[in-house]
Amino acid sequence: MGRKRILITGAAGFLGSHLCDRFIKEDFHVMGMDNLITGDIRNIEHLFPLENFNFYNHDVSTFVHVPGELDYILHFASPASPIDYLKIPIQTLKVGSLGTHNLLGLARSKKARILVASTSEVYGDPTVSPQSEDYWGNVNPVGPRGVYDEAKRFQEAITMAYHTFHKLETRIVRIFNTYGPRMRLNDGRVLPAFIGQALRGEDLTIFGDGKQTRSFCYVDDQVEGIFRLLMSDYPYPVNIGNPDEITINQFAEEIIKLTGTKQKVVHQDLPIDDPKQRRPDITKAKELLGWAPKVSREEGLKITYQYFKSLPQREINHKDF
Ligand code: NAD
Ligand code: UDP
């Protein structure tokens, strides 16, 4: 039997590139697709010499085609950091809606199984904690984050409709804040923001009073959860994230300790609709997939800091988004 064939959209991005690595390791034929709007080709350049890797530079919000058979699709193309999706709101809405529709159509025509990357943002600013999959969320559709949150909610709805109406094999992962090497230092997310500031000798910018919480998952754990979900037979949404919850104030202290920076923290305005708390209930992932995160924040942060420190100085100094 030949290699299984998988299409990964968003391949040049942070999660997409780690997924490409994982499926190459599993001896799949991997087709990576990306239009490089927020990604970086350097994340996957090491795969170019491989005979079981192809790259397609393509915007998935327009008609998508790949030659040959296809067993699986992972739809990960989408801006993911608030700074990015506020800068390109229409593209964000399009890739979550039209892009997802195109990939569902491709999956149907190729008889492939498709997994779409959803997000904890479907819970919005949650009124319950931790968030389990049966919580319907608290999203402001017309607020600045609505372009991302509602695109992802639509993505889930159309994916379920293809499952029930066309009997397509679908999977939905609700990803909670994930970090690790290959994040963009200037993508505005809190971890690269703090580490970048520490490396440049700037004060760390805490938005609001810093009492809001997040729960950070190391990328290898996230990829393992996604892999297991794809291989499972469960079509409903599953949370994948690390339930170890922390306030942004505590997180800043951890980064100060990790980097040894002598800088202090400064407070800036909290962005509109910034969720106050976020922590995944991972009971479902544990029961269905036998999955739980293994990498502690201390361990994961060390690896990630080493990665950022090893970047060329001009990249560390480049602050424009
Ligand atoms: P990223 O910005 O690093 O990667 C996204 C990739 O998608 C980029 O390479 C970008 O160029 C590509 N892309 C965007 N629009 C495209 C289009 N129209 N056509 C083709 N390619 C396009 O972000 P990430 O953190 O790797 O996120 C990947 C996916 O995971 C996204 O769907 C995101 O919503 C989801 N997610 C990520 C997190 C997280 O913590 N990293 C949390 C929740 C959900
Ligand atoms: N944040 C911060 N300082 C920064 C960047 C972000 O205090 O320089 C806060 C942000 O307001 C949010 C949390 O850190 O409460 C996580 O933000 P991020 O953009 O990483 O992801 P989100 O979970 O909000 O999508």
Automatic annotation (TrEMBL):
Keywords: Decarboxylase, Glycoprotein, Golgi apparatus, Lyase, Membrane, NAD, Signal-anchor, Transmembrane, Transmembrane helix. Its main location: Golgi. SUPFAM superfamilies: NAD(P)-binding Rossmann-fold domains. Residues 7-303 form the NAD(P)-binding domain. GO terms for cellular component: cytoplasm. GO terms for biological process: D-xylose metabolic process; UDP-D-xylose biosynthetic process. GO terms for molecular function: NAD+ binding; UDP-glucuronate decarboxylase activity. Its cofactor is NAD(+). Pathway: Nucleotide-sugar biosynthesis; UDP-alpha-D-xylose biosynthesis; UDP-alpha-D-xylose from UDP-alpha-D-glucuronate: step 1/1. It is a single-pass type II membrane protein. InterPro entries: NAD(P)-bd_dom, NAD(P)-bd_dom_sf, UXS-like. It is an enzyme of class 4 (lyase). It is found in: Golgi apparatus, Golgi stack membrane. Its EC number is 4.1.1.35. Belongs to the NAD(P)-dependent epimerase/dehydratase family. UDP-glucuronic acid decarboxylase subfamily. PANTHER family: UDP-GLUCURONIC ACID DECARBOXYLASE 1, UDP-GLUCURONIC ACID DECARBOXYLASE-RELATED. This is UDP-glucuronate decarboxylase.
